[in-house]
Amino acid sequence: MREAPLAVPQKIVIVTTELGVGGAERCVANLACRLNPEKYQVQVVALAAPPEPPRDGLVRQLREAGIELTFLNCRRSRQLFSAVSQLRSIVQETDPAIVWSFLFHANVVAKLATRGLALRRLQSLRVIEQGWWRRKLQAWAAAKADRVLCVSEGVKVFAEQTLKLPIQQLEIIPNGIDLSEIRPKAYWEPEKRAYRILAIGRLEPQKGFDWLIRCLGPLLKEKPEWELVILGDGSLRDELATQIRTEGLEKSVRLPGWSMDLEGWYFQSEIYALSSRWEGMPNTLLEAMAHGLPVIATNVEGVRELLPDQLAQQTITHENVSQATSLLRQLMEKPALRQELGEANRQQIQQHFSLDQMVARYEALLDAVLSIPQQHS
What we know:
Rossmann fold; 8-stranded mixed sheet; alpha/beta; 2 domains; 6-stranded parallel sheet
């Protein structure tokens, strides 16, 4: 009996705004490298130029995996039409089964570039977009997509209630992380360094670092053996540095900038702090939990899934500063509580947010979408 021929892998063009060091970009790289190559042939297109070393780790990861990678070298909004034209040419030449976009600018460009083409379209919503015009454009871009993939329940609610997208169009697939590459936290007392509260993110209003410094200031003055380290760069660096000086916290709060060695910072910290004002599903919180750190996290989108039930005692709000201060005090003063929560946090990620689980969910979604007849966008 003659064997049935092997199916030809389905072509997928993944479009992202850039390939720097963000959580959405990491998700793109992980999916491109880990989707079953017998089923899917993946090409990645980034609207921006290649990131400069040492921030090009994801680019190296993709190239080492043999993923076809194209940069459109668009650096400004006025180059939008160039990006649309270039992407349309790539799509027409490649003839993919699916065009799948990540992040706001990529979603808009992909929508424009695929108009009138018979293919399947996926859009990923990674964050709660701010500003009425961005929301209006995102709603337009996502209209008539075969699926809109939301990274958390909070993003799905935003898509349904604010963007007015039909619920049957929406799917939730949370982020995942590869625990095999992460050494768990060692809970011994630090030597030759201060006890450390770590925060990571762009120095922008979204991340709420101004609030975190205000909240932690009195405790850090009371406990000089502790420090707050905020890793990242952004437009608020000078403003945050001024706030630190004004509040007399120069010896307690540090802004080292961006670091390649996040693994080392997680390992050599006692508490992780997420102070964001809005999110989608915060990757740094997921990473901190995977490292076995106890956390203090504002109750933004995605946090409820990461910290359910008993773990929810680690959530706070910007409005209730006394609650946040109380939780921080407990974590700073009780090593046993830090270890108990840190171990529970790692177990939560291991059970529900592994990278293998994330990839499997996306593959199931792709298989379902590929069973849908093609339509003209």
